[in-house]
Specification:
Layout lengths: L6 H21 L5 H10 L3 E3 L7 E2 L2 E2 L9 H15 L4 E5 L8 H10 L3 E6 L23 H21 L3 E5 L3 E2 L7 H17 L6 E5 L9 E2 L4 H11 L3 E6 L9 H10 L3 E6 L16 H17 L9 E4 L8 H21 L2 H9 L3 H12 L4 H10 L6 H7 L2 H9 L9
Parallel strand pairs: 1-4, 4-5, 5-6, 6-8, 8-10, 10-11, 11-12
Antiparallel strand pairs: 2-3, 7-9
The chain binds alpha-D-psicofuranose and manganese (II) ion (MN).
Length: 424
């Protein structure tokens, strides 16, 4: 391990007095603080295996150094995050970027650090060196059956890897679409996609879920075959009860009301999970909550309300995953910030006075409704999130511990300056 075992305790001890003062102040006006603390400790966020190294744009990529060179090292990085925040106890794998060659070894290594395997991700948006057919013109939508078959087989292979690791879900994101008018017959593209997904669905074990991720644009810029939640929902509905929509926050057109989408999908029992990130212009995968923390809170507000209405378990009944690309930040610091932002938004949503909000709505009192939401959003819940962490044995201040121990320098010393992690 990169840092000594008692380092977190030592740093917690020096920050404890000030923390407890803040926690007492923050919790004094909250009735159900113990319940909130329990919910926060149960809440785990899956870290994407493809986002532990530096990301890049088509203009360039600037390595951070010390990037994990293989799946074992990626698990070690996540173990480090999980030790610091006790909220990153899951990994989402992307195949073939991270093939678990020795699955039982990988599974036990992860288990040693309290890490489980969240959704498996397939990749039919890139061509691999040994691949027979190209995905240049799509995968499941493709006009040629052989290409579609290759994409179906790949997804089934991904399910098989997942079975060995104890995963119970598959995320399918298709880059399929068209870049120019006239290129595609939309109906045929959709029907081919549905047919292919149907074959993959038929290979899903009974206790698995299939998440269908949509994206409005990129890499195709004229049409995307699963371009929005409507198309994803349509596919998921036709496929059956194990198929769900996955919402990636960065995959919408500007100003889309994501919280409304979430609310309706939940009501329809078709919301499967999330790829959390933030964005300003497009799918630029910025740190969760970096741009629009209020929107993040509003999404969590719908989630808490909608999940409670259906008696769902907040921690386990949806897939909570991050999908990001860290172009200039240290990926591990970025991930710590992202998990923290999610927990803050979640804690604030748990504070919403739902009884008063219902009354305000029934009286068409728009002003009071806004006040109730903003009251919760403007509450500084950071001491509460920190207390949940402290009780779970994690760091009061994960970023400070990370920096004070020079983790990145140790990783560079261990792995080298020029390593490149597989992924984005
Ligand atoms: C596509 O932009 C996406 O959001 C999908 O989830 C992919 O699996 C991931 O990013 C990595 O490319
Ligand atoms: Mn995504």
């Amino acid at each position: 391990m990169i840092f000594e075992n008692n380092r977190i305790e030592e740093l917690n001890a020096s920050a404890e007095k000030e923390h407890l003062r803040k926690f007492e102040m923050a919790s004094s006006s909250i009735k159900n603080v113990e319940e909130i603390l329990q919910k926060l400790s149960a809440f785990q966020v899956a870290i994407p295996s493809w986002a532990l190294g530096s990301g890049g744009t088509r203009f360039g990529r600037f390595s951070i150094g010390g990037e994990p060179r293989n799946l074992e090292e990626k698990i070690m990085d996540i173990a480090l995050l999980h030790k610091l925040n006790r909220s990153s106890g899951a990994i989402s794998l992307h195949i073939p970027w991270d093939i678990p060659k020795d699955a039982s070894h990988i599974k036990s290594l992860a288990a040693e650090h309290g890490i489980v395997f969240d959704a498996m991700n397939s990749n039919t948006f890139q061509d691999q060196p040994d691949q027979e057919h190209s995905y240049k013109f799509g995968s499941l939508q493709h006009v040629k059956k052989d290409v579609r078959k290759q994409a179906i087989d790949h997804n089934i292979e991904v399910i098989n890897y997942g079975k060995e690791l104890g995963s119970t879900s598959l995320t399918v994101w298709l880059a399929d679409g068209s870049s120019f008018p006239g290129q595609l017959n939309f109906r045929h593209a959709f029907q081919n996609t549905l047919e292919g997904l149907g074959e993959i669905y038929a290979s899903l074990p009974d206790d698995w879920k299939m998440f269908i991720e949509y994206k409005a644009f990129e890499p195709n810029f004229y049409s995307t075959t699963v371009g929005d939640w409507g198309q994803s929902l349509l596919l998921a509905s036709k496929l059956g009860s194990k198929a769900y929509t996955l919402v990636d926050l960065g995959h919408h057109l500007p100003n889309a009301n994501i919280e409304q989408i979430v609310s309706i999908l939940l009501m329809e029992k078709k919301l499967g999970g999330f790829h959390f990130n933030d964005s300003r212009y497009g799918d630029d995968d910025l740190t969760v909550g970096a741009m629009r923390p209020y929107q993040l809170f509003l999404i969590f507000n719908e989630l808490v309300e909608g999940m409670d209405a259906r008696g769902m378990n907040h921690a386990t009944d949806l897939g909570w995953m991050i999908d990001a690309s860290h172009n200039i930040k240290d990926p591990l610091e970025d991930l710590l910030q992202s998990v923290e932002a999610m927990k803050i938004a979640y804690a604030q949503a748990l504070l919403v006075d739902s009884v008063a909000l219902k009354a305000a709505r029934e009286n068409n009192d728009v002003v009071v409704a806004q006040e109730i939401l903003q009251d919760a959003f403007r509450t500084d819940v950071r001491p509460i999130v920190a207390e949940a962490r402290r009780r779970a044995g994690a760091a009061l201040e994960p970023l400070k511990v990370f920096r004070s121990m020079n983790v990145r320098n140790s990783l560079i010393a261990l792995r080298g300056e020029k390593t490149t992690a597989t992924g984005l």
